[in-house]
Amino acid sequence: MKKTYCFAATIALSSLLVGCGGSEEPATSAEVAPPEEPPKEMTMVDAPEDSSQILTRVLADQPDEAKARFTERHPEETLSFFGIEPGMTVVEALPGGGWYSKILLPYLGAEGKLVGINYSAEMWPLFGFFDEEAVEGFKTWTETWPQQAAEWRTDDSASLGAYEFGKVPADAAGTADAVLLIRAMHNLRRFEDQGGFFTGAIADAFTVLKPGGIVGIVQHQAPDDWSDDWAGGGRGYLKKADVISAMEAAGFEFVAESPINENPKDVPGENDVVWRLPPSFNGTGDDPEMKAKVAAIGESNRMTLKFRKPA
User: Fold this and answer.
1) 67 vs 4, 25, 41, 306, CA distance in Å?
2) Domain total for the chain?
3) Based on C-alpha coordinates, what's the Rg of the chain?
4) How confident is the model over 235-247, as pLDDT tens digits?
């Protein structure tokens, strides 16, 4: 016969076993806790980058040739001053070989869009130094530039578009968050009397912007005491007061200016053009002493102006 036990408690004594009816196995005074599960592996989740961190990373990824101009062109400070953010639709005037485009495409990101806008085909012959083949090529720029710029993209870059000043498509009206006119206004002003290109470009900027949208201008700045003819764009320089006046006449609100791109060492003479300075060095290539002299000046003295389309 199997023996069974039970527990009896007394006040004076600890538990004594006495024979009584019960289970076959000893009972316990408390339930046994289930074994603890092994701790789950901790996964670190990176906090999302803010816009300044994204811009810093994008600039760090630029090639050394582009970085060499950062101390002259201040892209981080300039884009931050204009309030350019990832996800925006930005219209960039005269993107050319893509110095700023290659920054903007990854910075705006997959949710953003970069639209290049070029001089109208009617303006190019006025320069007088483009051959017929080049002039014809500019007529298809809205097709060829996006193809070129696509080579600068990754899957995480902004999408692309292109149009000309004076020929902005109707469906582009009110679609842009910002228009960047970086070293782009002097030739428009130079040929204003031959086609209204300067006032027309400013009007196009107003058209494409959303209410509250921004125009960011970086422009070679003429000394205030030089004549209006000298500062009419043919030498690359414009007067700050004239730019502000033209923008306000088109309906823009002047928001602010910044000294980011000022260079007090650039004091042009009566016969000087902005292209004597780096990176062009026009007219100094055969004179090492002169080239060293203008290299010490650096890039041009430039105004940096921010305007807003009224909301």
Assistant:
1) 88, 81, 42, 24
2) 1
3) 34
4) 999 999 999 999 9
